[in-house]
Design goal:
Blueprint lengths: L11 H15 L3 H14 L4 H13 L3 H14 L4 H13 L3 H14 L4 H13 L3 H14 L4 H13 L3 H14 L4 H9 L7 H12 L5 H17 L3 H18 L4 H14 L15 E6 L5 H9 L4 E3 L5 H13 L12 H14 L9 E4 L11 H4 L4 E6 L2 H10 L12 H21 L4 E5 H6 L1 H11 L45 H7 L5
Parallel strand pairs: 1-3, 1-4, 2-3, 4-5
Helix pairs in contact: 1-2, 2-3, 3-4, 3-5, 4-5, 5-6, 6-7, 7-8, 7-9, 8-9, 9-10, 10-11, 11-13, 12-13, 13-14, 15-21, 17-18, 20-21, 21-24
Length: 525
């Protein structure tokens, strides 16, 4: 890159070596890239740019610790370099120190407000933390500075959806589509604004784009889900079913899900958690309400009700419980749940405190928080030892409606069970069976709540929900749809509406879904 101002002061052959390393990394030649970067660092030890490229290589190869060290050396040479601070934030985030990363990105934005990437990184991570308004501000800076930065436009749309600003979100997604008509993430975002259906022009565009073989498979999957929903909304059920099947079949080919591994895990988890040590502090975790179960089972609605309570912060879908368990597995050198029988009461208390430390930011204003990660149901069996004071709310919805809703929803955590009807049926049935086992072992803390029962008798069921969580009744929970909070799930639009009778979308398909009914163990239509 001739004339690169960041290479000023470097001998031309050293700059050429750095650029050759960047090309090698891009072309999938990491060993060659590393050799070129290290050679440049040795030949120009007083220049920060070769060090920055070496750090980027270390981040690319998942070595955030060495990247931090390399960037520290670079910052010692150029302490006011905005891009170095931005990259330093990325390395800090990769090491798990998000608070420090946010400070670094803010520092980069202050040093050079005209750089779009620090604003983008700041906005993306603020959004993940639930600071949606600040995220929107940062992402607006990013798209203003770099109008063609597609990920920033998508994330801005997502943040606006989560803030309940649906028209603004749609405009952001539309701007992204003006840049790239086959941007699957933009179509996904528009489709998830379920209060505003896609129009005939959108449907025609989606049909054209999904038929193009040169469109990336991931984009075809996303557009397929958007097109399927649009066809369903207009009553074209045969077309909708065909499109959903095609999209999920493609995704299953890309990331196949292994039911055998899932069933083996459940067998091991139920056996390993049958007998657990008595916790030294039975109140540990009483600040937490876990909401678990299948996706699309009404969990966001239950969280929205709880988050309307003045004592509860709605934290949405947190990864912290899984991360704490994963870190313990790494420490022990054994996969979970194989190490569970070896864990002492003190071990479980340590892990519970680690979770509470990781999630403390969610209790900075209100004393309790929800954790609505659906997959946490797989860990429900250990909570009576790890966080014995926590409440666990299992949400269920009509199995056919839940399963069909999962099949229609694109999930980004892959491989995923929802790509085939057979796998959805297996997953749902095993989830219910495992939760029944764990609920019988800890009936005082694990409670089953049905979506349809809530719709039929809202106030009565909300009172039971609050009681199960150890919360006093508060009438604001009845007006949950008016709660001013970020909702970071695909149900962001629905939970801002008053309770409505279930639309029973799956039932409309009649015998078309008999294979799904069979997978669920239900009578055919």
């Amino acid at each position: 890159m001739i004339g690169d101002p960041r290479m000023a002061g470097l001998d031309p052959d050293i700059a050429a070596s750095v650029h050759a390393g960047a090309r090698a990394l891009r072309d999938g030649k990491p060993a060659q890239a590393e050799a070129l970067f290290r050679q440049a660092c040795l030949r120009a030890p007083a220049h920060p740019e070769p060090l920055r490229y070496l750090a980027l290589f270390e981040l690319h190869t998942r070595r955030p610790g060495p990247a931090l060290s390399t960037l520290t050396r670079a910052l010692a040479l150029a302490p006011d370099d905005a891009l170095l601070h931005a990259d330093f934030g990325t390395a800090q985030a990769a090491c798990g120190d998000l608070d420090a990363a946010l400070a670094s990105w803010r520092r980069a934005c202050t040093l050079d407000p005209g750089q779009p990437m620090p604003w983008f990184n700041l906005g993306r991570n603020l959004q993940q933390l639930g600071d949606t308004e600040a995220a929107i501000e940062a992402l607006r800076h990013a798209v203003t500075l770099a109008p063609a930065l597609l990920p920033a436009r998508i994330l801005l749309g997502d943040a606006l959806v989560h803030a309940g600003r649906f028209n603004d979100a749609a405009n952001s997604y539309r701007e992204a589509l003006r840049l790239h008509a086959d941007c699957g993430d933009a179509w996904r975002g528009l489709s998830n604004i379920k209060t505003v259906p896609l129009d005939e022009h959108d449907i025609a565009t989606l049909r054209t784009q999904t038929a193009r073989t040169e469109t990336a498979p991931s984009d075809r999957v996303a557009m397929g889900h958007a097109l399927g929903k649009a066809e369903e909304d207009r009553g074209a059920l045969d077309a909708a079913l065909a499109v959903f099947i095609a999209a999920n079949t493609l995704q299953e080919q890309l990331t196949p899900w292994r039911p055998e591994a899932f069933e083996a895990y459940l067998t091991q988890a139920q056996a390993a958690t049958e007998s657990l040590p008595t916790p030294p502090d039975p109140t540990l975790g009483q600040e937490v309400v876990f909401i678990v179960g299948l996706p699309r089972s009404g969990s966001t609605l239950f969280e929205q009700i709880l988050a309307a309570h003045p004592e509860v912060e709605g934290a949405s879908e947190l990864d912290d419980l899984g991360i704490v368990i994963q870190q313990e597995s790494q420490r022990r050198g054994l996969p979970y749940p194989h190490w569970v029988p070896q864990a002492s009461a003190a071990d479980w208390q340590r892990l519970g405190q680690a979770y509470l430390t990781r999630t403390a930011r969610w209790r900075a204003i209100r004393p309790r928080h929800t954790d609505k990660q659906p997959d946490n149901w797989k860990h429900a069996g250990i909570l009576r030892a790890m966080l014995p004071g926590a409440s666990v709310i299992e949400t269920r919805r009509d199995p056919l409606e839940t399963a069909w809703s999962c099949f229609k929803q694109q999930f980004y955590s892959q491989p995923h069970f929802a790509n085939t009807l057979e796998h959805i049926g297996l997953y749902l049935r095993r989830c219910e069976q495992a939760m029944a086992v764990w609920r019988n072992r800890d009936p005082a803390h694990i409670h089953l709540h049905h979506y349809e029962a809530l719709l039929a008798a809202p106030e009565a069921r909300i009172r039971v929900l609050l009681d199960d969580c150890g919360l006093r009744f508060d009438p604001t929970c009845l007006a949950f749809h008016s709660a001013n909070r970020s909702v970071r799930t695909a149900s962001a639009a629905q939970v801002r509406q008053p309770l409505q009778a279930s639309s029973g979308r799956a039932q409309r398909y009649g015998a078309r879904l008999d294979s799904l009914r069979t997978a669920l163990g239900l009578p055919t239509a």
